């Protein structure tokens, strides 16, 4: 099926808004798939068409939410520009996404993964940026030489292009920067495929997952980000500082990492609880006996 020309028009509008290339690619892929599902021009879709499309999706609730947001953004744009008389995406719903507990990679597995990745400079730096700077796969893929500001102490500060177009600055430790330097000799994206084109975020993420699988591990790149957050909390970092470093819009999202610290402190809490025995013994020793 020939691509709907309205997709090209919509993407041109997004470029004027200076949205990130990864957002443009994701929007384009979603609209192409939606057009194929509908079997007719996107602007002719009805409420019922989009409802059937959402019902047909066989992916995780998180992915469904992403697809719905892309479709809704497209139809909001079309309605605002008077390309359609009514907005058929009004009936789309975002599924409730349950809060998932962090799954940080173990220190032993991280050490093994880093040792085995040293033959591949890009892969090695991807792992470092996730485990020691807290970057998501999309943020790793978007790293540009111009985003790295060198510091006088041997480290650097990195402008991270986060989810939803939000940006933040994270610290790059000196040892991580040292491994990045060979990739910083040219301007533009740091990470490129053999063809010379930048790595798409989904392919970069899949590449790392396959790498872990080759080691007999079931981790993902995001598990290294979880490790970054959990270690910061363990080291006593303020939860609001961790929120800023991770780029979380909500503090509630960050506080789930406090549960990791709670587990690490469980032994101390148990030792504290042993005092109950002495207290209850004393109480029992003074309790009157029944006649």
Automatic annotation (TrEMBL):
GO terms for molecular function: DNA binding. PROSITE patterns: CB (PS51900), TYR_RECOMBINASE (PS51898). Residues 100-270 form the Tyr recombinase domain. The keyword DNA-binding applies. One of its GO terms (biological process) is DNA recombination. Residues 1-79 form the Core-binding (CB) domain. Keywords: DNA recombination, DNA-binding. Pfam families: Phage_integrase (PF00589). CDD domains: DNA_BRE_C. InterPro entries: CB, DNA_brk_join_enz, Integrase-like_cat_sf, Integrase_catalytic, Integrase_recombinase_N, Tyrosine_recombinase_XerCD. PANTHER family: PHAGE INTEGRASE-RELATED (PTHR30349), PROPHAGE INTEGRASE INTD-RELATED (PTHR30349:SF64). Belongs to the 'phage' integrase family. This is Tyrosine-type recombinase/integrase. The lineage of its organism: Bacteria, Bacillati, Actinomycetota, Actinomycetes, Mycobacteriales.
